[in-house]
Design brief:
This protein is α+β, with helices and mostly antiparallel strands and 89 residues long. Helices cover 36% and strands 28% of the residues. The chain contains 3 helices and 2 strands; from the N terminus they run αβααβ.
Length: 89
Amino acid sequence: MAERYSDDAAMAEWFADRFLHKATFPNVQVLDLDGLTGRLSSSSYVPKPGHSNHDPMMAALRQLFDRTARNGTVDFEYSTRLYVGYAAQ
C-alpha cells in the first residue's frame, strides 16, 4: 500500500471527504550489523541471496555500517504517518 499511497496528496485523494486527521510519529531503531542486515533482508524489494546484486549490496551495507556506526550500532531513523478517516458507505 505504501507504494500506491506514498504521500499526503495521494492519501487525501483516497479518503476524499472522509479524511479526519493525520499524525506523524518520529521513530528510531538502534541496530547492530546483524540487526541492520536483518532489517534490509526483510524488505521485499531487495535482491535475495543468489541474485547477482545480492553480494554487492551486502558488501556496500557493510561498508556503510563500518563508516557510520558508533559503539557498534547505527540509528535507523524514520517517520510513521497515520491517517484517520472512515470508509465510504
